[in-house]
């Protein structure tokens, strides 16, 4: 069932929201599964296979790093998406569009992940990966902003929780956005900046706003 808001914009709830969440979960799971396709099993013949296999693992360490990083990033977005949509009671057209934009970015992540794994010492690879993750973060922040300023969430969700959720949503786009200019100076330094920026912003956010806490007040 669907009802119309006063503005004439379609508002969906109930099973329609469940379909949105189910579709989103499918995209997240497929994107996370595709990440592993960048890892290749070596075809070794002849003597010293064990030693050569270790050498192959060392050679594939950049691909393993990019896989673990992207899996962690997508996993974090899925956890945030899961926690957020547990609180969503209705979905309007704008939310559907913003969610599709986020899912489009999530589905794209396996591509720059493989590029980073193969050419992680180049500026182009690091910039491409950073830009993709930054845009993904912006899409997620836009979705969070819309929910914060709408009546789509459970009315019991506190204003403090809404604001804190949006502040946390801008962390990753800042982390990867800051790395883009650094990559033009030194790609390796840009990789290091991801971790430094992440811990710095997380520490600042926790110190300034505390832990996100429970969505419902006492």
Structure overview:
The chain is mainly alpha-helical and 218 residues long. It has one domain. Helix content is 72%, strand content 5%. The chain has helices spanning 15-34, 49-59, 61-85, 93-108, 110-119, 123-148, 159-169, 171-185, 187-209; strands at residues 2-4, 10-13, 90-92. It has a three-stranded antiparallel beta sheet. A hairpin with a 5-residue loop joins strand 1 and strand 2. Helix 1 (15-34) runs parallel beside helix 4. The longest helix has 26 residues, at 123-148. The radius of gyration is 20 Å and the shape is globular.
Q: Which tags fit this structure?
A:
218 residues, mainly alpha, 3-stranded antiparallel β-sheet, 3 strands, 5% strand, disordered N terminus
Produce the secondary structure layout:
Elements lengths: L1 E3 L5 E4 L1 H20 L14 H11 L1 H25 L4 E3 H16 L1 H10 L3 H26 L10 H11 L1 H15 L1 H23 L9
